Amino acid sequence: MALLFIDSGRKYGKINKNVYGHFSEHLGRGIYGSIYVDENSPIPNIRGIRTDVVEALRHIRVPVLRWPGGCFAEYYNWKDGVGTDRKRIVNAGWGGVVEDNSFGTHEFLDLCEQIGCSAYIAANVGSGTPREVSEWIEYMTFDGDSPMANWRRQNGRHEPWKVEYIGIGNENWGCGGQMRPEYYADVYKQFNTYVRNYGNHRIFRVACGADGNDYVWTETLMREAGTHMNGLSLHYYTMPGYYKFDEYPEERKGPALEFDKPTYYRTLRRALYMDELITRHKHVMDRYDPKGEVSIIIDEWGTWYEVEPGTHPAFLFQQNSMRDAIVAGVSLNIFNAHSDRVQMANLAQLVNVLQSVILTEGEDMVLTPTYHVFDLYKGHQDSTLIESYIQPQLKGTSEAMVPALHVSASERADGRVHATVVNLSADESQQLHCVLDGQAFSSAEVRYISGTMTSHNAFGHPPQVEIKKMPVIPIKDNRLDMHLPACCVAEIVLS
Ligand code: AHR
Question: What biological process terms from GO does the record include (predicted)?
Answer without folding.
Answer: L-arabinose metabolic process; polysaccharide catabolic process
